Amino acid sequence: MHKVQEQLLEIVRHNPNEPIKIRETQRLLGLSSAGFITHHLDQLEKKGLIMVDKDKNYHPLHNKDDKRKAISSLKSYVKYLEARNKELEKRFKEFRKLCEKLD
Question: Do residues 49 and 73 share a domain?
């Protein structure tokens, strides 16, 4: 695990009910990019060590039930993204047809 991920996991574990402030955490860890923090939080989520709620707050996962909930949540989100993607593809096709008619 990357050193930054270890540090972020400790921060999440010690503050489970408080949202992580990305910029504040960036300064605390002495990093130059807020995107770097977000990237490593995303990696921790993918590893099943933390979960993100609908308000973008990060929470530690301690047991299998937490991980099952996180997996269920991720599956639901993937289904949402797939449906959204289909809708966007449909709109793009309609837009393309309209552009062809205008040419």
Answer: no
Cα 9 to Cα 58: distance, rounded to the nearest angstrom: 10
Taking the C-alpha atoms of residue 23 and residue 29, their distance in angstroms, rounded to an integer, is 10
pTM of the model: 0.56
Distance, in Å, from the CA atom of 33 to the CA atom of 52, rounded to the nearest integer, reads: 20
Domain that holds residue 17: 1-61
Tokens representing residue 1 in the block: 């695990």
Residues 20 and 1 in one domain: yes
Lowest mean per-residue pLDDT among 1-5, 71-75, 90-94: 71-75
Q: Where are the alpha helices (DSSP H) in the chain?
A: 3-14, 22-29, 34-46, 64-102
Q: Which residue has the tokens 């309609």?
A: 94
pLDDT tens-digit readout, 29-72: 898 888 988 899 989 988 888 888 777 778 887 756 666 777 77
